[in-house]
């Protein structure tokens, strides 16, 4: 599942289109997502085409209908989930290993 996509960054100059602000130069009113912009949209700074923008999206592991359940673990990316699982396993391993050092 892909989350985000309301903003995008121009690869040519670094200008960032934000949905909250829109683009008064084009004119695009606030609240219009980057995907909803017309195909002839250009960067107001360098004049780059819409296909030169890189959308700010992140891929979240899991199904869209399951994102509302749990303690926030469903909205983590695959790498974040792996880090959380293996970090907890390493912590548990060292916790039990520290029992050998008790007198």
Automatic annotation (TrEMBL):
Domain of life per record: Eukaryota
UniProt xrefs under InterPro entries: Rubredoxin-like_dom (IPR024934), Rubredoxin_dom (IPR024935), Rubredoxin_ET (IPR050526)
Single Gene Ontology BP annotation: alkane catabolic process
Bilayer-crossing regions: 84-102
Pfam families hit by this protein: Rubredoxin
GO cellular component, as recorded: chloroplast
Keyword terms: Electron transport, Iron, Membrane, Metal-binding, Transmembrane, Transmembrane helix, Transport
Keyword Chaperone: no
Residues in Rubredoxin-like domain copies: 5-56
Gene Ontology molecular function: any one: iron ion binding
Protein name: Rubredoxin-like domain-containing protein
Species: Edaphochlamys debaryana
Lineage, top ranks: Eukaryota, Viridiplantae, Chlorophyta, core chlorophytes, Chlorophyceae
């Amino acid at each position: 599942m892909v989350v985000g996509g309301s903003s995008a960054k121009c690869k040519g100059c670094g200008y960032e289109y934000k949905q909250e602000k829109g683009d008064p130069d084009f004119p695009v009113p606030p609240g219009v997502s980057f995907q909803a912009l017309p195909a002839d949209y250009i960067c107001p700074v360098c004049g780059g085409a819409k296909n030169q923008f890189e959308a700010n999206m992140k891929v979240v592991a899991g199904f869209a209908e399951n994102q509302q359940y749990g303690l926030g673990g469903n909205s983590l990316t695959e790498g974040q989930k792996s880090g959380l699982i293996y970090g907890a396993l390493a912590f548990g391993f060292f916790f039990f290993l520290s029992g050998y050092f008790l007198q």
